[in-house]
Amino acid sequence: MRAVILSGGEGRRLRPLTYYFQKSMIPVGRRQMPLLYYIMANLAHHGVRDFLVLVGYKSEQVVNFFGDGSRFGWRVSYVEDAEGYSGTGGAMLNAIERGALSTDEDVLVHYGDILTNLNVTRLIEAHRSRSSDAVLALSKSYELPVGVARVEDGRVLELVEKPKIDLYVTIGVLTLSPRALTILRGLGRSSDIMRNLVPTMIRNNMAVYPYLLEDEEWFDVGSTERYEKLNSEDIDAMFDFLED
């Protein structure tokens, strides 16, 4: 299965870092390799080595580092964001209309600011075994970035700092079928995958299924606060299989 990686955003929540870095190129781990390297390396570990990277802001950093991917044993191609297209769905539609992405194939979509050791093999098997239109990788809980208060009769009775809540949350990785890709044309040049495409598929009673993370980990590296909390040793342990 081919992977489409969304790597074109300005990363405004990561400023001032993204004044200098493309957000998917910020260094992580003790080796200080780009975030995007770990995304691709995890996918390649599971046999996905054909990447279409949708680029825009500071795209030169991505292209200069990865090139055609041959030095890593991968195949990497790029589509530059175009004027008049916006959002993650718009970026994919741009790739389709430019002939870089076929609507005849299943694809795996990976957001460029998500760091995870997701078992991609199991995700793809879930997609194919159920003839899915989409399979969403979901975490079973989420740690809120703020404290939560319980208020009764005008008094604060309890305060819990950054609690974990029991909700299925999307982690920015999903599979899409050819039928799903064709829907992008109807959504127009300004759309979002999670906000527009997937809800449209659900309303149309298409086959949208969950993939629940088990022993996998994930980090949203989309803000400066979250990036500062990354521990290099934890990242290295998370991807220790890449040293095999």
Key terms for this structure?
single chain, 244 residues, Spore Coat Polysaccharide Biosynthesis Protein SpsA, Chain A, two-stranded antiparallel sheet, 8 helices, 15 strands, 30% helix, 27% strand, globular
Task: Tell me what you see in this structure.
- The chain has 244 residues and is an alpha/beta fold.
- It has a single domain, classed as Spore Coat Polysaccharide Biosynthesis Protein SpsA, Chain A, CATH 3.90.550.
- The protein has eight helices and 15 strands.
- It has helices at residues 35-45, 59-66, 87-97, 120-129, 178-187, 193-203, 224-228, 232-238; strands at 2-7, 27-28, 33-34, 50-55, 75-80, 107-111, 114-116, 134-139, 142-143, 148-152, 155-160, 164-165, 169-176, 208-212, 218-220.
- The strands form five sheets. Strands 5-4-1-6-13-8-14 form a seven-stranded mixed beta sheet, with helices on both faces. Strands 2-3 form a two-stranded antiparallel ribbon.
- A hairpin with a 4-residue loop joins strand 2 (27-28) and strand 3.
- It is globular, with a radius of gyration of 18 Å.
Largest sheet: 7 strands, mixed
Report the mean per-residue pLDDT as an integer. Answer: 89
Structural class: alpha/beta
CATH homolog superfamily:
Spore Coat Polysaccharide Biosynthesis Protein SpsA, Chain A
Radius of gyration: 18 Å
Topology order in helix (H) and strand (E) letters: EEEHEHEHEEHEEEEEEHHEEHH
Indicate the low-confidence ranges by residue numbers. none
In the CATH scheme, the class would be Alpha Beta
Amino- and carboxy-terminal Cα gap: 23 Å
Structurally, the number of domains stands at: 1
Q: Looking at the structure, what is the overall shape?
A: globular
Number of strands: 15
Question: What would CATH call the architecture?
Answer: Alpha-Beta Complex
What does the oligomeric state look like here?
single chain
Strand content: 25-35%
Number of helices, counting only DSSP H or I runs of 4 residues or more: 8
Strands of the biggest beta sheet: in what spatial order?
5-4-1-6-13-8-14
